[in-house]
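Record 1 of the preview.
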Amino acid sequence: MDTAAIKKEVEEVPPKEEAEKKEKKNRPRLILALLLVILLLIGGYVYYFFFGGSSKSLTAAATAGNQVPVNMQKMSLEPIVVNLADPGLRRYLRSKITLEYSDPRLTTELNDKLYRIRDTIISVLRSKKTDDLQNEDALKRELLTAINSQLIAGQVRGLYFEEFIIQ
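->
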């Protein structure tokens, strides 16, 4: 072999120093790519945990599994008809209400105090104007508070309108 050919072969093979420089140059890119992948995985997990549909149902199922099942009782009241407090207008409200509670002992107290509970409901509803009845949730909370103030043995947990007619 000729010395020129040997010299050419030596020049084509990069020295170890050049190979190490190329590796060092590519390391930051590799580290950034790995960090980006890790951040995407963490972001996906956080999104799934907080906003995913199945995680909420799993949480609800786990919570329900830890609690003792409650046998809810209900009492439907006779329909109530009241005049509304609209000035200058003759407006009537007809409503049928069902109360929901968990303590079976409360049934006796509700039956004993039914006249008081109906009077309380009538008083609250009679004081309302038509515009006040637009916010159903606020009305339910107000009625529940008024009814529960009459009770000693327990508390009514839910109040449902089966009929709600304004005329």
